[in-house]
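User: What would this chain look like folded?
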Amino acid sequence: MAEYDPQHRHAPPPVPKETAALQALNTIIQLHFEKTLEKKRSIDLQKKQLHKLTQFFFLFLALVFVALTSGGGRLQCRHCWVPIALLSLASLAFYVSVAQTLRCINGFKYQRRCHKLTLGLATEKLREMKMRIMTGAGGGFEDDGGEFEIQYQEPPESYLGKFKRNWALHFGFLILIYGFMVSASVVILCF
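Assistant: Here's the prediction, encoded as structure tokens.
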């Protein structure tokens, strides 16, 4: 049996600069692709939660209006403040929940967009490097200063306008529903 001789250690062969750069870019691409998928799953989960919350809210509204219409004359016009107060509290709780859920959804969408932009930049850089290798211009790697890092990309400020429109649509709809609920309860009880 041969003894271990520390003088005869085999050093791993040096990795060419091109191979190291390609491996680094592939790792960056894989990371941002996985993050993009993770954010997509998070967005889908939040949307399901928002839909479930909306269903429960409309079910509650239906129960309130059934109770108002089948009150049997017990509730009169002077009592209209009771359902209005109940509807106002329920609407406030619903609005706060929707606001929080939309905030989470918009945050995940923004992060997903950042990862997609970074993924696109890394993919383009990888494509350029592969073209250099295939054309034999591998010496161009020093042009990058030996740095193969891809900076985290963020969308332009105009991208945030999309979220403001989304908020405006949701809360416009919620205010419209609240106005309808209050006016319907007054009409049912007073006329």
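The chain has a mean pLDDT of 86. If you want, I can go into more detail on any region.
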